[in-house]
Amino acid sequence: MNNFTYSRASSVTDAVQRASSDRNAMFIAGGTNVVDRLKVFLDEPSQLIDITRLEMKRIEKLPNGGLRLGALASNTAVADNADIRRDYPILARAILSGASQQIRNVATVGGNLLQRTRCPYFYDTAFPCNKRQPGQGCPAISGISRMHAILGASDQCVAVNPSDMNVALAALDAVVEVVGAKGKRQIPFTEFHRLPGNTPERDTNLEPGELITAVILPAVSFAKSGVYLKLRDRTSYAFALVSVAAALDLKGDKIQDVRLALGGVAHKPWRSPEAEKFLIGKTAETTTFQQAAEIALKSAQPLSHNAYKVELAKRAIRRALTVSAKGGGVA
Ligand SMILES: Cc1cc2nc3c(=O)[nH]c(=O)nc-3n(C[C@H](O)[C@H](O)[C@H](O)COP(=O)(O)OP(=O)(O)OC[C@H]3O[C@@H](n4cnc5c(N)ncnc54)[C@H](O)[C@@H]3O)c2cc1C
Ligand code: SF4
Question: Most CB atoms closer than 10 Å: which of 14, 80, 133, 203?
Fold first, then answer.
């Protein structure tokens, strides 16, 4: 392991200045992903910049009715927040389906957005991996691909984004607020994470040194009927094979608006605008939901071991939309 320094940032400006002037610096928040990565030499930073004492923990109501989640709010604080439980239950349920209570107590909003793929080849440095070292190759494509992507992958990388929270945030049209050397900017959630393409080493569109300061949840009409359905090998403490965040806004039985996002199927939380467009104006019923599921999965390209995900995702979409049409709740 390389020697590295550890220090606490005294302010957002201090954190950003230090990270922007040293390409090998890393932020550490809850540390639940960073420390795992350091232990297997996935990351070898020159310095760890501890951001946990910065003023970024608050969950605040916005004048327009939305919410601002500070990047250092813990996963537990977000899932337990009364406004979130009432107005954005889809987000609370997604968070509570992940990890364990102990991990959620220290894991933060910003860190959850940036946790890296759980592709086993990525974590095992005995294997080559284009995400660790571009140009090395991707052993997952011809290897064990049970957990890997069926949508939006490339011949460089077939990894999936592991976060549950990300799927709910994609469905909620969240916005990520970041500060970098050039100042503040906001990134719509659907543009925050990337598909692998020819740059599988990049998970997001963050620039080097940029710090996530908050996630904004807009006030949206469909959020209360939100459903998060996570399918996994065990009922606890496992990452999603497939997950669905679905939310419907109904007038009678007619669909006025809808959001549909999938997890466990792509390098980023996968929104399906085509399926959403198809659903608007239709009657909320099983055949319609089935047709939407077919549309959402029509470009799926499974690997040797993960064709099961295509049918699993279709069934999960149908079930999540059915529960959402009944007002939401646990799917
Ligand atoms: C056993 C186990 C099971 C898990 N199961 C699940 C699960 O089922 N579902 C799920 O979604 N997650 C799961 N997780 C992942 C967990 O949710 C993440 O590790 C956690 O959310 C990361 O948050 P953190 O604050 O600890 O991030 P850290 O580990 O501190 O940081 C993660 C990354 O984010 C960067 N970073 C952190 N904060 C910022 C910021 N504000 N701005 C810029 N960069 C930042 C760090 O540099 C690092 O690259 C599991 C983790 C473990 C260990
Ligand atoms: S899928 Fe991506 S992360 Fe996994 S081995 Fe291939 S390049 Fe690496």
Answer: 203
As beta bridge partners, residue 179 has 184, 211
CA-CA distance, 195 to 200, in Å (whole number)? 8
Q: What is the pLDDT of residues 218-272, one digit of tens each?
A: 999 888 899 999 999 998 889 999 999 999 999 999 999 999 999 999 999 999 9
- Closest by CA to 112, choosing from 155, 72, 157, 63, is 72
> What's the number of CA atoms in the CB half-sphere (13 Å) around residue 191?
7
Closest approach atom of ligand 2 to CA 156? 7
pTM exceeding 0.90: yes
Q: Is the distance from CB of 77 to CB of 44 less than 8 angstroms?
A: no
Q: Which of 64, 62, 55, 74 has the alpha carbon at shortest distance from 13?
A: 55
The Å distance, Cα 114 to ligand 1 centre, comes to 6
**Is the per-residue pLDDT at 135 higher than 90?**
yes
At 177, phi and psi to the nearest 5? -100, 125
Amino acid at 16: V
Q: Say how many Å lie between the CA of residue 106 and the centre of ligand 1.
A: 9
φ/ψ (deg, to 5) at 63: -55, -30
Q: How far apart are the CA of 72 and the centre of ligand 2, in A?
A: 29
Distance linking the first and last C-alpha atoms of the chain? 45
Q: Do residues 108 and 131 touch, judged by C-beta distance below 8 A?
A: no
Could you give the CA distance from residue 304 to residue 171 in angstroms, rounded to a whole number? 29
Quick one: how far is CA 140 from the chain centroid?
A: 21
Contact in structure between 121 and 257 (CB atoms under 8 Å)? no
Alpha carbon distance 40, 11 (integer Å): 30
For the cut 80, the answer to whether the pLDDT of residue 210 exceeds it is yes
Identity of the amino acid at 54? L
